[in-house]
């Protein structure tokens, strides 16, 4: 059998091509209101030149010294690269988490971040789904927009949980803005 939590185009094509007598089970929310963006979540975006992203990120972090901030990057290599830079440029506590770190290092990083009331975590999609940070995350920053709108939702959903207030900031370049990234999000997600 084939089991998948999400039925994207690839899984549906595989189902058609390689399974005899396939059956699908779909679970949906009865109340569509549960799919809406929580009122406590503030969604923002900032149009920024690529060479100014680091400065803007540092500015946001420095202006929020007592908050927990989770910064998403597209790749694990970017997480490592910016972790090195942050260690040199910012006196605040900076941790990292991505799939190429060994399990013990990842677990320690998440545990250290969870136990603090402040600090910054640089992460890849690994922390996008299924990891609950006790005590909440104050600000989620998406350094680059994800290619899949579902990842945007999962990333933003790391904050404003259990009635807490939270903020999500998406960095967009002028080109991404001109390519209608925000329209793309609106068409491909329920908010």
Structural features:
191 residues, six-stranded parallel sheet, 7 helices, 6 strands
Distance between the termini: 34 Å
Radius of gyration: 18 Å
Query: What is the spatial order of strands in the main beta sheet?
Result: 1-6-5-2-4-3
Query: What's the count of strands?
Result: 6
Strand content: 15-25%
Oligomer: single chain
Shape: globular
- Count of alpha and pi helical runs: 7
Percent helix range: 25-40%
Q: Order of helices and strands, N to C? A: HEHEHEHEEHEHH
Look at the helices and sheets and give the structural class. alpha/beta
Low-confidence stretches: 27-35
Q: Report the mean per-residue pLDDT as an integer.
A: 80
Largest sheet properties: 6 strands, parallel
Q: How does this structure look, described?
A:
The protein is α/β, with parallel strands linked by helices. The chain contains seven helices and six strands. β3, α4 and β4 form a beta-alpha-beta unit. The longest helix has 14 residues. The two termini are 34 Å apart. The relative contact order is 0.18.
Write the SSE topology.
Layout: H1 9-18, E1 41-47, H2 53-62, E2 68-72, H3 76-89, E3 94-97, H4 103-115, E4 119-123, E5 139-142, H5 149-156, E6 166-172, H6 174-178, H7 181-188
Parallel strand pairs: 1-6, 2-4, 2-5, 3-4, 5-6
């Amino acid at each position: 059998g084939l089991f998948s939590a999400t039925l994207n185009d690839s899984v549906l094509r595989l189902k058609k091509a390689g399974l005899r007598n396939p059956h699908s089970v779909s679970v949906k929310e009865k109340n569509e209101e549960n799919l809406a963006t929580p009122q406590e979540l503030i969604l923002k975006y900032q149009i920024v030149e690529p060479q100014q992203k680091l400065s803007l990120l540092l500015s946001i972090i420095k202006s929020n010294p007592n908050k927990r901030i989770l910064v998403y990057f597209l790749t694990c290599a970017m997480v490592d690269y910016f972790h090195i830079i942050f260690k040199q440029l910012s006196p605040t506590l900076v941790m990292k988490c991505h799939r190429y770190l060994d399990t013990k290092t990842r677990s320690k990083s998440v545990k250290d971040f969870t136990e603090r009331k402040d600090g910054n975590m640089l992460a890849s999609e690994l922390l996008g789904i299924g990891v609950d940070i006790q005590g909440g995350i104050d600000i989620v920053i998406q350094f680059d927009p994800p290619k899949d709108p579902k990842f945007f939702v999962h990333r933003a959903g790391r904050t404003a949980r259990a009635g807490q207030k939270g903020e999500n900031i998406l960095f967009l370049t002028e080109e991404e803005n001109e390519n209608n990234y925000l329209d793309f999000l609106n068409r491909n997600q329920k908010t």
